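> example.struct
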């Protein structure tokens, strides 16, 4: 689970510092887009903030009906990161994406399916991983590997340059948020388990 907030961020006061640190961090998950095989996120526990955004990088997402998901960035005083400002608007309907990003609310897997965030939400979260693996086997055993690679190249890899530019913009935007009073208010509210009151 990720809350999308970390106390160490407050110490990086310049955009340049934040871009350098975040680009290194992003390098751990952006290779998902370069894999020559489909990626399936089996979300069997909370996926909030960064965890939700990593799942959004995957081609297909499966979860349980009661699992909590959300992009709570604005509620913790920062703009979206982890590519969320690109993947959420491009993979979801416009008003759904704005709901997810602007409210920062958490929603259940059942809601996520209705919103188009996930392919399906299963009654029992212990079924999520077996279902994802079954789908992976179905895809790999019934489709042409050559056609698969070309399809992924057409639908996914062509977005890489745009995503990389957007990740830099996200890091700059978050640096400005980290330097704000709103971030300090949010950080205190997380530490004290209270609701932040922004000025």
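> example.seq
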């Amino acid at each position: 689970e990720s809350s999308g907030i970390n106390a160490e961020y407050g110490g990086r006061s310049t955009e340049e510092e934040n871009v350098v640190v975040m680009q290194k961090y992003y390098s751990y998950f952006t290779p998902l887009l370069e894999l020559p095989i489909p990626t399936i996120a089996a979300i069997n526990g909370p996926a909030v903030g960064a965890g939700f955004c990593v799942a959004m990088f995957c081609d297909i997402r499966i979860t349980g009906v009661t699992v909590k998901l959300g992009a709570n960035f604005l509620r913790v005083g920062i703009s979206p990161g982890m590519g969320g400002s690109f993947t959420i608007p491009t993979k979801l309907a416009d008003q759904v994406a704005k709901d997810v990003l602007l409210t920062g609310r958490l929603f259940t897997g059942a809601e996520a399916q209705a919103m188009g965030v996930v392919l399906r939400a299963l009654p029992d979260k212990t079924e999520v991983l077996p279902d994802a693996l079954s789908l992976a086997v179905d895809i790999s055993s019934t489709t042409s590997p050559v056609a698969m690679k070309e399809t992924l190249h057409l639908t996914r890899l062509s977005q890489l340059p745009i995503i990389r530019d957007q990740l830099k913009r996200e890091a700059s935007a978050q640096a400005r948020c980290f330097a704000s009073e709103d971030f300090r208010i949010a950080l205190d509210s997380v530490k004290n388990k209270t609701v932040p009151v922004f000025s």
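> remarks
Residues 1-9 have pLDDT under 50 and may be disordered.
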